[in-house]
Design a protein that fits this description.
5-stranded parallel beta sheet; 4 domains; Rossmann fold; Helicase, Ruva Protein, domain 3; 20 helices; binds adenosine-5'-triphosphate; elongated; alpha/beta
């Protein structure tokens, strides 16, 4: 059954001027408007008159806006709610979303923005308590193609189901390959826009002059090569979602135009004179620190606040390594099917290697590694030797110098400090190797890939020759090859 569009709005604000402004804007749009100056009595008003949307001012005293949203969600789930954010506080709207609000309007109120919000509310399904996932629900290991069971991923899934159905702008942050585009698609699929276009643009993939024409379209003759009128991606995404990946790479002009489009739904083609209205939900993603870019003047603060009504941060894979076996199983199935290969399980040594690695390229890198391993594997299961060599090398424990060592040698010239560090390393490493080989120099030399004489020289230089680990044992030499042996091959061991 289609949702009833918003007919009656209740504006709850302590500010008489704000109530009056909103009444005029909404009435001009043909809606009924009720107003209240405080949260007390709101529930009673709702019981008496059918209200479709409550717009609740964040500036109600004693944080009662959030209490009111909470109460409305619990007692009147059929009423949509939205937050009227305090001036300059639009980014703080998130707590309202956790309490069932499906949108927000910034102050000072701008008529075009208020109407745009109303249009979104017309298409937003009414909240229902069961629609919001709470902790503990959705125990499935995957959600809309994303795999993860760690708490950080579960909370991402919960956030997507909570805000997906609303029309709000979302900023997805995370390192490259953490799944930002997947999240954007999931938000789209969760929303009522799911049958409308999902359009994506990687803002870093095009030079800034082209990004603008790509996003907003152009008129014939607007620039060299503009041989005919062409609509942009905002127009193409009408009714649906526009995903702007790497938004930090947008130039200043494009940033200004995107801000206008997000705020008022108005877009103008490059070289055009007339604006077109579009109904587009924007989801942006970045792996750059937009807050810092705002401070350096490289990114507009007002655009950042518009975008991060809801911020969704994706954890890097190295912070959720317990998800690696699950992800690996998913990718092995996927590629076995895609390449018509037998499905192979992950051997213990391979699993261990994958769990130890740092994954700078995150899930994308894991996916590529497993695709390669499955193709190369000819054993019964994938083992560590089917994985790229770099994985095991970089998963080897790192040698670190103690703080005490660094402090004690802080004032030494570099060359001398390094020599001391090397001496410490040699002593620790060689002592351990000798101990593992029962103090046997010939065996230790073989294990370390050193000539026996070289090892002896090293031990002498590092004062280990007569040390507790450096006793020499005479053992029969192991022939390097069978057949005739020479004195060189069987050096005499003292
Ligand atoms: N949780 C996950 N479960 C399954 N596959 C995932 C998950 N996260 C990411 N992937 C896969 O990893 C690859 C990279 O994901 P995606 O393109 O969404 O990352 P991104 O953060 O947008 O990367 P970039 O910043 O480089 O654009 C895709 O193939 C995606 O399907």
């Amino acid at each position: 059954m289609p949702e009833r569009a918003v007919q009656r709005i209740l504006v709850v604000s302590p500010n008489a001027e704000v109530r009056q402004t909103l009444r005029e804007i909404f009435e001009q749009d043909g809606r009924d408007v009720l107003t209240a100056a405080a949260s007390a009595g709101v529930e009673e008003m709702i019981s008496r008159a059918e209200v479709d949307l409550v717009l609740c001012d964040q500036q109600l005293p004693d944080e009662s806006a959030y209490a009111l949203l909470e109460a409305l969600r619990a007692h009147h789930p059929g009423v949509r709610t939205a937050l009227l954010a305090a001036p300059g506080m639009s980014a703080a709207a998130s707590p309202a979303f956790e309490r069932g609000a499906t949108d927000y309007l910034a102050q000072p109120v701008v008529a075009a923005e208020a109407i745009t919000m109303l249009r979104r509310a017309d298409h937003t399904p009414r909240a229902h308590p069961s629609a919001s996932l709470t902790s503990g629900e959705n125990e499935s290991p995957s959600f809309r193609g994303m795999y993860g069971t760690t708490e950080s991923m579960r909370s991402v899934f919960r956030m997507i189901s909570r805000v997906g159905r609303t029309g709000v702008t979302v900023l997805v942050t995370g390192e490259s390959g953490t799944g930002k585009e997947l999240v954007a698609r999931a938000l789209h699929d969760e929303s009522t826009r799911r049958n409308k276009p999902f359009v994506a643009l990687n803002c870093s993939a095009l030079p800034s002059e082209l990004v603008e024409s790509e996003l907003f379209g152009h008129m014939r003759g607007a620039f060299t090569g503009a041989v005919k009128d062409r609509g942009g991606l905002f127009e193409a995404a009408h009714g649906g979602t526009l995903f702007l990946d790497e938004i930090g790479d947008l130039g200043p002009l494009a940033q200004a135009k995107v801000l206008r489009a997000v705020e008022s739904g108005e877009v103008m083609r490059v070289g055009g004179t007339k604006s077109t209205h579009v109904d587009v939900r924007v989801i942006a993603a970045t792996n750059r620190p937009l807050d810092e870019m705002v401070m350096d003047g490289r990114f507009r603060e007002d655009l950042l606040y518009r975008l991060k009504v809801i911020s969704l941060a994706l954890p890097p894979l190295r912070e959720r390594t317990s998800d690696i076996p699950l992800l690996a199983g998913h990718f092995l199935h996927l590629f076995a099917e895609r390449h018509h290969l037998p499905l192979r399980a992950l051997g213990d040594d391979a699993r261990e290697t994958l769990m130890q690695y740092d994954w700078p390229g995150n899930v994308r890198e894991l996916r590529n590694v497993l695709e390669g391993a499955l193709v190369m594997c000819d054993g019964a299961e994938i083992s560590a030797c089917d994985l790229p060599a770099g994985l095991s090398a970089s998963s080897a424990p790192r040698v670190s110098l103690s703080t005490a060592f660094l402090e004690a040698n802080a004032d030494l010239p570099f060359v001398e400090a390094r020599e001391r560090a090397l001496r410490e390393f040699d002593r620790a490493f060689l002592s351990a190797a000798l101990a593992r080989n029962g103090g046997n120099i010939a065996r230790t030399a073989r294990a370390l890939g050193l000539h026996r004489q070289s090892l002896q020289k090293l031990l002498a230089r590092r004062d280990l020759r007569n040390g507790e680990n450096a006793h020499e044992t005479v053992v029969p030499p192991v022939p390097l090859r069978t057949g005739h042996t020479t004195a060189r091959e069987h050096p005499k061991v003292r």
